[in-house]
Write a structure and sequence with these properties.
Layout lengths: L4 H6 L20 H10 L2 H5 L2 H15 L3 E3 L6 H5 L4 E4 L3 E4 L5 H5 L8 H17 L5 E7 L1 H10 L7 H9 L1 H25 L3 E6 L7 H22 L5 E5 L9 H5 L3 E3 L6 H7 L5 E6 L3 H4 L1 H14 L5 E5 L9 H12 L2
This protein binds coproporphyrinogen III.
Length: about 350
């Protein structure tokens, strides 16, 4: 286990070839994913069906031999386990019942009540830990509290996270209590994933970039630090990846401030900038623009090489800057992997 390439990079080792996986690697760009999803009925039924969720997790491993598999689930299963209604509108995205007041918050369940709903996810992890190739690392994950809260407050994805900012600015006590509940529940959720066999955990803070100044410290840095500290206390040596997407200058020092072993980088910064300002503090993951998986060609090859070159001096896990999109060409993924491994 200690020899898995991803775990070596997460311990701070610089490897001659960076290990590679891809956000949303199990997804709609793959015909075999679409077939299994159709068999499950819909997206949420797939998330809660351990055999089929494990199957879609394994598909990109079989097809491409990625160095890591990420549990197939969604960051919005946790709010559902806390009592929110959740459904997905095809072609649009998630919808949830909303939390906009202290009263709404009191109506949610506690961190100890989440496991009944989430137990199929833990079963998926158990199946995966028994069926993955020996060299493949299994990554568990959760949404970071701020990003999950933006969906719980608005009831859907929003371009500017306006409803969550409004609650935060008008009733900071209630908003902070929601963040605390999510932080506690996330620790319990991730702990069960690790007990079931996840070897690494990743926190997705997709909307971290809309937090500025003290808000970034209070709602992106502090929850990530608290979750990381508690997970490492419970599971000594457990590696943690943090993804404060579009944090910009907020990426600087994020390793030290949160205790995360690896910081994932999006496409709002260049790999050269990230090598100079972020990789100096520890392992980084990223950051080829996901549009290259659609457009392919020589630009894909050149940009892939550029990312590998930029991060050559330190620990690096190759990945995209955000999830692969449904219109991507599976052949381009193969070309990216071949380019990384042949350098
Ligand atoms: O990376 C992986 O493959 C692991 C599984 C995973 C999914 N979602 C599967 C999924 C992970 C780690 C996520 C994280 C997630 N989910 C985030 C954070 C990362 C990010 O992308 O910014 C967010 C914000 C969500 C919430 C969510 N789930 C949205 C907004 C949507 C709709 C948008 C879309 O792409 O359709 C989803 C659906 C979703 N989650 C899909 C997948 C494969 C597509 C659903 C389908 O098959 O129809």
């Amino acid at each position: 286990m200690a020899d898995k390439t991803i775990l070596r990079a997460l311990r701070g080792e610089r490897l001659p070839t960076p290990p590679i996986w891809m956000m949303r690697q199990a997804g709609r760009y793959l015909p075999e994913y679409r077939a299994t999803r159709a068999k499950a009925g819909d997206f949420l039924s797939l998330c809660y069906n351990p055999e089929l969720a494990a199957e879609v997790t394994l598909q990109p491993i079989r097809r491409y031999g990625f160095d890591a598999a990420i549990l197939f689930a969604d960051i919005l299963l946790l709010p559902q386990a806390l009592g929110a209604d959740l459904w997905f509108v095809t072609g649009e995205g998630p919808r949830l019942s909303t939390i906009t007041s202290a009263e709404g918050l009191r109506g949610l369940k506690t961190r100890d009540d989440i496991h009944e709903v989430l137990s199929p996810v833990y079963e998926t992890v158990r199946i995966l830990s028994e069926s993955l190739p020996e060299e493949t690392t299994l990554i568990g994950f959760a949404g970071a509290p701020w990003t999950v809260a933006t969906y719980m407050v608005a009831g859907r994805g929003t371009p500017d996270q306006g409803p969550a900012h409004k609650l935060k600015d008008e009733d900071r006590a209630t908003f902070s209590a929601l963040i605390d509940l999510l932080s506690d529940a996330t620790i319990e959720y991730l702990s069960k994933q690790v007990e079931a066999g996840a070897e690494v955990v990743k926190l997705f803070d997709s909307w971290a970039g809309s937090l500025k100044g003290q808000d970034f410290e209070d709602f992106a840095v502090k929850p990530a630090a608290r979750i990381t500290k508690e997970m490492k206390a419970r599971f000594p040596g457990l590696p943690v990846i943090a993804f404060p997407r579009e944090a910009g200058d907020g990426y600087i020092g994020f390793h030290q401030k949160t205790g995360a072993d690896c910081v994932a980088i999006d496409n709002s910064v260049t790999p050269e900038w990230a090598a100079e300002h972020v990789q100096v503090s520890g392992c980084v993951q990223g950051n080829l623009a996901s549009r290259h998986m659609v457009t392919g060609g020589q630009a894909l090859v050149e940009e892939t090489r550029r990312v590998v070159e930029a991060f050559r001096k330190g620990p690096h896990i190759f990945n995209l800057g955000h999830g692969i999109t449904p219109d991507a060409d599976p052949e381009n993924v193969a070309l990216m992997i071949e380019t990384v491994r042949n350098m």
